[in-house]
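Sequence in, structure out. First:
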Amino acid sequence: MRIIDLSVPIKNPSEEEIAFEYHRQLTARVDYFDHHQTVPQITQVLGCEEKDLPNGYGWATESVTLTTHSGTHLDAPYHYYPTTDGKPAKTIDELPLDWFMGDGVVFNFSHMKSGETVKVVDLEKALEEMAYEIKDGDIVYLRFDADKKLGTPEYFTEFPGMSAEATHYLIDKGVKIIGTDAMGFDVPFEKIAENFKETQDPKVIWEAHRVGMHKEYCQIEKMANLDQLPSHGFKTHCFPISIYKASAGWVRPIAILND
């Protein structure tokens, strides 16, 4: 049995990411306190002196500042809109746990260019090639190889995305969880703005996310290592951290392969 990590680590942003002001809110900050820096804290708490500690060492600890959409995370229906099909949209702590483990299916769209959207015809062609039929409870991952740009400004601006029609298609097949190795589920914000300027059609604004207004589903953004997986025939777990009434939660999805 092999277990493959499908997440990216939460870490301090690179200089290039810091300079990319527009998406700074989605980066994380980690402050590190080593075994020497915490000595005053541990001696005060435990009423001892530095000489009483093993080689004068305290403990190591970190402080993290981030949003619920930093790093690999799972979006709850509440992120997309206040309601789903007229009912209150579920927050991350309200989602059924049995959604987050099941058979995994990987669609290889690594050939797609930035700004292109996955259509139903793309899904059907891929399913035919892999000789597979989506079933209720499958967890679907979209491989664009966008994670290879992690740490660069292009990670935020160059990736394909899902269309509304393709999102509807998968949900109607019984899929509750759709993951992507791109920063976002839709095409980049700049591309959405360009499409709206050209068409003046409000339907192009966040089209895949807004499917959640009508049908209940979750998406995982900022995944990694999907290129290490077969198209199907593996199990996957993707349990999110439960945060009260939150729109998303951090997740460390894994794939379990039986060799």
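Second:
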Amino acid sequence: MRNLDITTLRSFVAVAQSGGVTRAAGFLNLTQSAVSMQLKRLEELLELQLLDRSGRGVSLTPAGAQLLTYAQKMVDLNDEIYSRLTDQSWEGEIALGVPDDIVYPVIPEVLKRMGRSHPRVRVELISSSTKRLKSQFDKGEVDVILTTEPGLDQGGETLAKVPLRWVGAPEGHAWKQRPLRLAFCSYCAFSSKAIAALDASGIAWEMAVSSENDRTIEASVSADLAVTASLEGHAASQLVHIDAGNQLPELGMQNINLYAGNGKGGLVQPMADYLRQGFSAL
């Protein structure tokens, strides 16, 4: 009987999620050669090619894609067993702040992984605007925050650069109306960027819906009463990105940034690592 090594599986999962040996080595605090050696051992053990190294970076072969789900479960179960039975020090709580519009799809998986590896830690998820989260972080009220912003402040780390897109109802026509009817939360930082782009393009607009509640905005847009803007890949499930050609202006790129404190007895680092891995896998 041949046994799979958790260490090699952990390296395989890290490479698959990060898209390259270099980034995986950074997550694992190992050298690139050590990670490459572990991948080679795993492929030799299984007598299968798991990674396609022919292009830039690496991608999964069909066998690698099949293994990934099992490998992730085995690594998570290993960490959960070890934490529950031996690690009495990982206790306490940590506050994670995330803008409303990027909670999905990454954050639920991050919370799940944190719960498995640190079962005695209470994670408080705070969903708010970037401006409010940065204020709370500066006051020490939140330990780790994600932000959506065009730049990066000192002490931050950019996890991803994502296009800002116009969003409307499926098969909707609101984007064709003039003046263009807009719907934004009153605290949404994207509204000023969208309005500036419309003004620069000479497109008339009116603020049809302004609310403190994201659900109100989503309901109005899904009813084709107005359009809004969101990061690509992060729009509500009942809304779609608008492909309007040159009839609506481009909105440029936004950063998804990470800001992490230094306290909480070492709990910040694993949370930050899970966030890095989650957004690198998108």
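Remark: The two ends are 36 Å apart (CA to CA).
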